[in-house]
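To the wet lab folks,

You asked to see what we're planning to order before we commit. Fair enough. Below is the target structure as tokens, and below that is the sequence we designed to fit it. If anything looks off to you, flag it before the synthesis order goes out.
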């Protein structure tokens, strides 16, 4: 009871396949461009990470020294009157 499928024009088939292939090519080119851009961003972030880590280590050391000084101040005996 179902009808046989309609024949699709060869021109329409060609158009569909052409658009599919163009879309795949565009996607590949776009992905390549984005990958290169992301690689540059990661390089910059890696360089900044070295500087940021050095600053954090320096700040951590400064905080540790300040804490030691504060503890030394607290542990000093108070003069009795």
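Sequence we intend to order:
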């Amino acid at each position: 009871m179902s009808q046989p499928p309609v024949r699709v024009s060869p021109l329409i088939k060609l158009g569909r396949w052409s658009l599919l292939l163009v879309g795949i090519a565009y996607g590949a080119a776009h992905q390549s461009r984005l990958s290169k851009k992301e690689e540059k961003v990661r390089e910059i972030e890696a360089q900044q990470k070295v500087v940021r880590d050095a600053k954090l280590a320096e700040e951590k050391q400064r905080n540790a020294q300040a804490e030691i000084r504060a503890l030394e101040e607290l542990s000093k005996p108070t003069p009795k009157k």
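Structural context that might help your review: The helical segments are 10-75. The radius of gyration is 34 Å.

Thanks,
Computational group
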